[in-house]
């Protein structure tokens, strides 16, 4: 499986935003890559969703049902930093966003950025202003939202690894079957 990797550093760690506003997440890369993947984990829907792949030539490939008007990626000329831009924010955009690179059949995830809450726009009222007392927000830590020693994200590459292992065993099993048959024929000829 895999867990988050400090070779892909994301900033900020948390984002508080308002409906219809926009935001950006920066991913600093200290690993060779052919492009950057962006994913979103939704705790509420229990889904890990592919958003966009942006290659080093500047071409973007979007996931199923992902709006090109909502998500875009920009990279620096040095190819060491990429930013995911999210516009027209609404409550369905809540979740933890991860940048990712693939290398040697391994998927490395960034440190994660939690879009904590998309707050509704404030209502315009004619009431007297309320005192500006600070309000404490309580957010679940990433560790508290995980189930088990690693995040639920480990199951996707783990399943892929098991599938590759099983597929690599097919030629070995076929060869063993042929050797067994030859041995059986040789024994019965004698």
Automatic annotation (TrEMBL):
Molecular function in Gene Ontology: coreceptor activity; MHC class I protein binding
Glycoprotein in keyword set: yes
Keywords: Adaptive immunity, Disulfide bond, Glycoprotein, Immunity, Immunoglobulin domain, Membrane, Signal, Transmembrane, Transmembrane helix
Listed GO CC annotations: cell surface; membrane
Gene Ontology biological-process entries: adaptive immune response; regulation of immune response
Cell location: Membrane
Domain Ig-like: 4-104
Disulfide bond as UniProt keyword: yes
Highest rank taxon of the organism: Eukaryota
Record-linked InterPro entries: CD8B (IPR042414), Ig-like_dom (IPR007110), Ig-like_dom_sf (IPR036179), Ig-like_fold (IPR013783), Ig_sub (IPR003599), Ig_V-set (IPR013106)
Gene3D superfamilies the record matches: Immunoglobulins
Membrane topology, as annotated: Single-pass type I membrane protein
TM ranges: 153-173
Full protein name: CD8B protein
Species, as recorded: Formicarius rufipectus
The encoding gene: Cd8b
């Amino acid at each position: 499986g895999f867990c988050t990797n400090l070779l892909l550093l994301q900033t900020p760690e948390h984002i508080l935003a308002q409906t219809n506003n926009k935001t950006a997440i920066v991913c600093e890369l200290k690993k060779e890559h052919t492009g950057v993947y962006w994913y979103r984990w939704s705790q509420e829907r229990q889904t890990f969703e592919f958003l966009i792949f942006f290659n080093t030539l500047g071409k973007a490939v979007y996931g199923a049902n992902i709006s090109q008007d909502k998500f875009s990626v920009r990279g620096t000329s040095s190819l060491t930093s990429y930013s995911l831009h999210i516009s027209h924010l609404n409550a369905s955009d809540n979740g933890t966003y991860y940048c990712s690179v693939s290398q040697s059949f391994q998927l490395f995830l960034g440190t994660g950025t939690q879009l904590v809450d998309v707050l509704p726009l404030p209502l315009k009222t004619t009431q007297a202003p309320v005192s500006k007392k600070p309000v404490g927000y309580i957010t679940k830590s990433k560790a508290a939202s995980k189930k088990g020693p690693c995040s639920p994200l480990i199951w996707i590459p783990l399943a892929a690894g098991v599938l590759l292992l099983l597929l690599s065993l097919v030629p070995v099993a076929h060869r063993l079957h042929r050797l067994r048959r030859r041995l059986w024929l040789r024994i019965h000829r004698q």
